[in-house]
Design brief:
Length: about 180
């Protein structure tokens, strides 16, 4: 009730917040998306406030379950992928005997694809960390043009596969920015 009073008190402009409501006598709570809007007359004078409540408890629960699923699957995928990557590296190191040049090319491609999968899994884990609110940013000085060049190099094979030509133009202005490169 106090949070709702505060929301309405500050509703001189549109505000949206999520409120958790404990249910007396029941386990759990409800989550309400609350939007408070000022009500103005034709002259623009504030004559009242309107609040809209939307029960988003089920939506929040689905989001929580999705995040847990992504986190669990990411960890489950990482284990066999680590084993596959190790086996590829052992084969590349000729642990099982000498390899032809063609076999090495295939193993190099497999290793690259395994690294890409590890990157995707790490991205999923990072998304889960961000969604949980436990993410921390590490701000550094980034040469923006270098970052763009690395990203272009990463996506150039994808572009070529789609018969697209990826071109970059040099930027002569200040290209240093502060941010978390990841």
């Amino acid at each position: 009730a106090a949070a709702l009073r505060e929301l309405l008190k500050n509703a001189d402009h549109p505000l949206t917040e999520e409120l958790e409501i404990q249910q007396p006598g029941r386990l759990g709570h409800r989550v309400l998306k609350t939007t408070a809007l000022p009500l103005r007359n034709e002259q623009g004078n504030l004559i009242g406030k309107v609040a809209l409540f939307q029960d988003i408890t089920n939506i929040k629960e689905v989001e929580r379950l999705k995040s847990e699923f992504i986190l669990q699957m990411s960890h489950e995928l990482r284990t066999p992928l680590t084993s596959i990557k190790g086996s590829i590296d052992n084969l590349r190191d000729c642990v099982a005997g000498p390899l032809s040049r063609k076999q090495i090319e295939y193993l190099d491609r497999m290793s690259h694809n395994a690294d890409e999968l590890v990157g995707l899994i790490n991205d999923l884990l990072e998304i889960s960390t961000i969604e949980s609110g436990n993410s921390t940013l590490t701000a550094t000085t980034i040469v923006f043009q270098d970052l763009i060049q690395r990203l272009a190099n990463k996506f150039r094979p994808v572009a070529e596969n789609k018969q697209l030509d990826l071109q970059l133009q040099n930027f002569n202005g200040e290209s240093r920015v502060r941010g978390d490169e990841e």
